[in-house]
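Dig into this one:

. . .
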Amino acid sequence: MTTSGHPDGERPRHGIAFSVVIGICLLVLAVIAGCLLRDEPAPSVAASRSVMTSNPPIDFGVTAGKVLTNNGAMITVAGFLGAETIVYATVHTKVLMIGGNHLSDVRVGDTVFVHGDKRTDGSITAKFIIGGSSWQRPVR
């Protein structure tokens, strides 16, 4: 046994749990997107022509990664590609965490997926924060 507490100096693998959390997040996002798109009325022919000839601005914000901070009103997320994003929560933000459904249930180190409205400064006002708690296997 090495000084790290693991045979041969190996670290515990979290790949399976991480993949499960990301898969759940993507599944929930797909369900939410399907519900939102289903409730919209069909556009008229004139409206569809204007949509095809213009490029509307993208005003939604999405990020996924590890929570760096949580002050009760906002969290900072280190994205999988390295960028940090400030995420603001409102009374309308839906929080779906394994083990809780409030922003206070989001802990530093948790993995989250965020969808909301992108602000001009690059931050996001969250509509949904979905994720799972970080965990480690006990050292034996």
User: Anything to note?
Assistant: The first strand starts at residue 60 and ends at 70. Residues 15-38 form the longest helix (24 residues). The chain has two helices and six strands.
